Amino acid sequence: MSLGSFDGLTPATYDTPESPFNTTFTFAWEKAPLSMNYRMHRMQAANITKEIRSLMHSLARNIPDLGRCRVDLIWWVNTKHRRDEENVVPVLKALCDGLVDAEVVEDDTREFMVKMMPEIRFIPKRQKLACFEFTITEIGTAA
């Protein structure tokens, strides 16, 4: 599976001096590139993980050092098939590792990054095509 062409890749940054940094990246993946249920050779999974991680690294290079952030992954789907949210955790993990590679945060541990459980949301095809949205929000230091 090649992740190379992203016609639907649109980062949107919302940042004002009064508000914390917030940006959302949209990936035009109709199907999860990685899943805990996929039965693929470990090297194939490693290559896809590396591609996702490298992609996030290249996209996040211009994000300032946030110190601490919260990340959310939403998979917008156009069918009402049953899906388990935990199956797309490998996608979330690779994206978070890419943020660390880009030096947005020091590490992807709870001290520096709060990872929310991925969500799967239905939206009719006429309103929006299936995709993944990855949101990064700056948060204050842990109390």
Can you tell me about this structure?
The structure is a single chain. By secondary structure, the protein is of the alpha/beta class. Helices cover 22% and strands 23% of the residues. Strands 1, 2, 3, 4, 5 and 6 form a six-stranded mixed beta sheet that branches. Strand 1 and strand 2 form a beta hairpin. Helix 1 packs across helix 2. About 5% of the residues have low confidence.
Number of helices: 2
Gyration radius, to the nearest Å? 15 Å
Spans of at least 5 consecutive residues whose pLDDT stays below 50 are 4-10
Q: Structural class per helix/strand content?
A: alpha/beta
H/E order of the elements?
EEHEHEEE
Kindly, what is the distance between the CA atoms of the first and last residues, rounded to a whole number of angstroms? 42 Å
Portion in beta strands: 15-25%
Largest sheet: 6 strands, mixed
Give the overall form.
globular
* Helix fraction by DSSP (H/I, runs of at least 4): 10-25%
Number of strands: 6
Question: How does the SSE layout of this entry go?
Answer:
Elements: E1 12-14, E2 22-27, H1 42-60, E3 69-77, H2 89-101, E4 113-115, E5 119-122, E6 131-138
Parallel strand pairs: 3-4, 3-5
Antiparallel strand pairs: 1-2, 2-6, 3-6
Helix pairs in contact: 1-2
